[in-house]
Description:
Helix content: 55-70%
Order of helices and strands: HHHHHHHHHHEEEEHHHHEHH
Oligomer: single chain
Number of helices: 16
Amino acid sequence: MRPSLEEKLLSAFARAFRTPDLRRKLLFTLGIMAIFRLGSFVPTPGVDYQNVQTCAAPMGDDTSALALVNLFSGGALLQLSVFALGVMPYITASIIVQLLRVVIPRFEELHKEGQSGTAVLTQYTRYLTIGLAILQATTIITMANSDTLFPGCQVPVIPDDSIKTLLLMILTMTAGTGLIMWMGELITERGVGNGMSLLIFTSIAASFPSALGQINAAENGLVKLIIFILISLVVIGLIVFVEQSQRRVPVQYAKRMVGRRMYGGSSTYIPIKINMSGVIPVIFASSLLALPMLAAQFASDQSEGWVQWIAANISNPGQNVYIAVYVVLIIFFAFFYTSITFNPDEVADNMKRYGGFIPGIRAGRPTAEYLQYVITRVTTAGALYLAIVAMIPTIAFKIMGVSTSIPFGGTSLLILVSVGLDTIKQIDSQLQQRHYEGFLR
């Protein structure tokens, strides 16, 4: 009798923990993730923790501009903890540095230099992360002190609002961001998987139990909870299928003589993923939609027409205008991000330099045009997939009349499944290096 899939996975995990080196990496990774969650509950000096709990309790259905930051901090933002900013400053800094490659030629040159250039860009990302952390910490503390972060709260969350206390809070939150960045790099170097991705995974996974509990507490909650779980399983299946899919462009290398030896003559392929941009377009779209909501929150007169329009159409993810703009932005950023990460001209030049060609396509410019044609078709499918995955849970909640939703709908599921697949692949490759049978067979 052949073992089931669950038995295979459990046996593979057992083999992973029986391998001393891999066991140390797994325990190290789990330890860092536990410290990250612990820091999400440690209040920042100067904050009245009891008052924060009182003010944050009614904000379970929060759809404000800070909901994305709160999602990626595992709820630490609304606790005003030392890890309140979460990984958001690092994500923003990484995206900015990647976009600057298009604007600043020096950044593109560093990217092409290989490991040494990447190290310099990583250093720039760290500096920018700290700068953004200072800016975001200042904004959040200012909002908390002016009752903008917790609207309608009757008790002060920062009893002592002296300059000394506020500066200490900004310094603490910024240091917390630096510590998160360091822990993420430690996981990447000494653990298993991508460190920052696993910290995001931890934050999002931590927000699920409370959200599911609130769905269950609603009217006909058990039925709605079962429907949501079934929808989530369908979305997870779609994510796994698409994330594993790729368009393979065949490449043939011509034979050539170097001295007395013959090189080339091999066949390979260029793997082009259906979703080359990952979750970046969804994060970009969510962040951009948060800007008008943030501006509306800081408006002095909440009765102005533009403020009321934003509150009616943009502030709630279930509104038709929000859904339409969200989908358009996701599709736009999917094409934009793919265009800066995959350069058909550069790939075609490299193939020509090493004697490679696509069967039936001439080397040089025709190859670049063919790759651009393939990328456009594949990215169209990937962009539509991202939009569908991001909106299915939101639309389902709207139809069911559930006011409480998993933050940003399918984005959470997309990140969880993508990071989980990547981590399992890394564990699998390390098991195979040690002559064990891995997870994926």
